[in-house]
Amino acid sequence: MAYDGTVKIGTELDGSGIKKGLQETEKSAKKTFEELAKESGKSVNELKADAKKIAEEYQKQGYNIPNSYKKAYSDMGVYSEKSKKKLEDDAEDIGDSHEKNSRRVSETWSNAFSVLLGNMLTEVVSQAKNAAGAVLDIGMNFESGMSKVQAISGASGEDLAALTDKAKEMGAKTKFSATESAEAMQYMAMAGWKTGDMLNGIEGIMNLAAASGEDLATTSDIVTDALTAFGLSAQDSTHFADVLAQASSNANTNVGMMGETFKYVAPVAGAMGYSAEDVATAVGLMANSGIKASQAGTSLRTILTRMAKPTKEVQTAMDQLGVSVIDSDGNMKSLHEIMDDLRSGFSGLSEAEKVNMAATLGETDGMSGLLAIVNASDGDYQKLTDSINNCSGAAANMAETMQNNLGGQLTILGSTAESLALEIYESVKGPLTDMTKLGIDAVSNLTEGFKTGGVMGMIDAAGQMASAFAENLPSIIEQGFRW
After folding, report:
1. Using an 8 Å Cβ cutoff, are 258 and 244 in contact?
2. Angle at 291 between CA 288 and CA 294, to 5 degrees
3. 3-state helix, strand, coil in the chain (%, to 5)
4. Is the pLDDT reported for residue 122 higher than 80?
5. Each residue's pLDDT tens digit, 358-372
């Protein structure tokens, strides 16, 4: 390729090492460039620029940098035999500098990637350790909860297995975890519920807890205590949950406050044969007037007990109102009938007479609650009564509505994830238990060896321990990896 002073395509070299190499090469060949400048009529700088462009053309054809400059210098005739070796060496230096820069960039990226990969692996390992620890914690907490159920209820064998499976099932399909289900079963067991009772009753309680926003243990405690007080059984738990759910959604109260009310009034109401529906109606009417929780329970209990065994003054007031707790056949009237009679009797009184009559019947504790019941409008009274008496499925429907949002679905996802963790735990529990037992035996043997033989005794025990580990560890590890 003869030099004609032109080049078709040019690119600019980059890098301080290459630039410096070019400067040194140009300095060494300065005389030769000056000679060529005299012959061609071009300046030295123009010739140097041409040399660079020619070299770049050769690079496009596949020449490396040193050889491209050698070819360019040769084509231009800028070297003499005397300076040829120096120019070739400088061209080699330019290429070496470029390759070093490229290698340095490559090494920098390689190191950065190595650091990034290392950090990623460290994070993966860390998260794996955390996940393993979480699985163990979840599994052990659940087992501990079911052990308490077993201790309280006396369930064992197939019964305990059925309760365990039910707790896991509830954890997999509701917002509550299996561990929370086990805690709810503890309250059921304390209430004297048997295995069948717990299996049939837990779903209604869980629906009520989900519908009300109360925690599962508290809801279980409320339902079991109230059922006992009303003389109901575990098989009534679903319906009772519906009563509480409907009352709390149609009156100015909630399940927690109603549970507090029932602590005071349910034993009395249950003994008198009053239904949970009628008591819930009375409690709801009081709540709408701001009388709630323990105050409502105390108020209603006072009214019921004073009318059940009336003083002469109370009996006179009841006769004036046309109210009796017993019908013509000598049977106890329902609380709904008594409330109807009270509302009818009070309707013809002036405000002053109502207050005086309420004070007579209820005294200080019961007066405000009684006025709340008799002063409620007919529409409000009938609406609340009808809704509570038609409450079937209320807890389940409300629970579904409460969970029909992102937050609710994420909560259910968390419970489902715990179910997965429990399955994993079940797979590794056996091997881990065996290893733990080996460790306990080992420490006990070392302690005993030291007691009987000092350091040498402990060394002998350590040898026996090593043999035991060698004998049992392979099978333990094999079991652990099956999952």
Report:
1. yes
2. 135
3. 80, 0, 20
4. no
5. 999 999 999 999 999
